[in-house]
Design goal:
Blueprint lengths: L4 E2 L4 E2 L7 H21 L2 H7 L10 H24 L4 E2 L7 H4 L7 H19 L4 H4 L2 E4 L5 E4 H29 L1
Parallel strand pairs: 3-4
Antiparallel strand pairs: 1-2, 4-5
Length: about 180
């Protein structure tokens, strides 16, 4: 079954219905970019952005790159579901992207722009959806194939931004404590 809440960050999907989710996406994307912008304007914080607190953890910078890619992938998933009848959406290969896309080498200031653009691109599509479009379905592949509607996909995208912003805050706090 599709995720309906996240115990780790207390996100409840049903609290984020369309069309409210469009404004939430815009606000969350802006907040994520603003936090990264603030950190990228301070040389000490900028140096901390790329530090992994532990080998198995992503750095704050890598989480921010992941959010950018989530927004871009989710936008394409919206479009595909609007065009095709119940498409099966492939995984975004999140575990391969840090290495293949060079997340750790990203320029934080440039990434702020990428986040703002990716947010705008997603919102541009989501803002055009009507009630029938929000009900269109797809098969979401992660963590297991599950049929969901676009309202769920949009709420899941908000969840990604909220959850990953918490991860960025935790990673930066751990790096600050270690230095």
């Amino acid at each position: 079954p599709a995720m309906t809440r996240c115990d780790a960050c207390a996100f409840v999907y049903s609290d984020h219905p369309p069309p409210d989710v469009v404004d939430e996406l815009q606000a969350e994307g802006h907040e994520f970019a603003a936090r990264l912008r603030e950190a990228s304007e301070d040389p000490v914080e900028t140096s901390r952005l790329g530090v992994r607190p532990a080998t198995d953890d992503w750095s704050a910078l890598e989480y921010a790159c992941h959010v950018r890619d989530v927004l871009l992938v989710q936008r394409e998933r919206l479009v595909r579901t609007l065009v095709e009848d119940t498409p099966t959406l492939v995984t975004m290969h999140r575990d391969h992207r840090p290495r293949l896309a060079g997340y750790a080498d990203s320029d934080p200031a440039r990434l702020v722009t990428h986040l703002e653009v990716a947010t705008g691109l997603f919102v541009d599509v989501a803002a055009r959806l009507d009630d029938a479009a929000w009900r269109r379905t797809c098969v979401y592949s992660h963590p297991e194939p599950t049929e969901v509607d676009l309202a769920w996909v949009a709420a899941h995208t908000v969840h990604e931004l909220v959850h990953q912003r918490g991860d960025v805050d935790r990673m930066l706090a751990r790096v600050r404590a270690a230095t």
